[in-house]
Design brief:
Structural class: alpha/beta
Number of strands: 3
Strand order of the largest sheet: 1-2-3
Distance between the termini: 58 Å
Strand content: 5-15%
Radius of gyration: 25 Å
Order of helices and strands: HEHEHE
Number of domains: 2
Length: 142
């Protein structure tokens, strides 16, 4: 049986843990609000990029000389671009992207196609370098 002093120490410890947890929740809420504000500020930029891309695709539709727009009967080589984060602070985000890329590579290999990886972001570059799969690794400027 625990003594009265042990029980009081345990109660104080739990109160401290509750305070720390509340402080962490407040920090997380503030970060979430800032992220939402940044997303809101990026909306006009994203809309302009969609419009630009749509216009470019419409104009390229009539130009047969653009190699990317030409349909091919047989695909021998497929490029996979993995866009990951620079830090591991997004839960399983980076892991899931890399795992899906590897799964896609396996599916393409079963179809007799060669998959070539390009990676953007330190986590993707690191994973592909470790697996020796990275052909063209793009890292963001520091």
């Amino acid at each position: 049986m625990a003594s009265q002093k042990d029980v009081k120490n345990r109660i104080a410890s739990i109160k401290n843990i509750n305070k720390i947890t509340r402080a962490m929740e407040m920090v997380a809420a503030a970060r979430l609000r800032r992220a939402e504000q940044r997303i809101e500020q990026m909306r006009p930029y994203a809309q302009a990029m969609r419009k630009l891309t749509r216009r470019a695709a419409e104009q390229a539709g009539g130009i047969p000389r653009v190699p990317v727009m030409v349909e091919r009967e047989q695909e021998k080589r497929v490029g996979i671009v993995l866009i990951t984060g620079d830090r591991g602070l997004a839960g399983a985000f980076n892991t899931n992207i890399i795992r899906d890329g590897m799964r896609l590579k396996g599916e393409l290999r079963e179809q007799g196609k060669d998959a070539v990886f390009s990676a953007v972001g330190r986590k993707g570059v690191g994973a592909l370098t470790f697996r020796k799969d990275g052909n063209e690794l793009l890292t963001p400027p520091r």
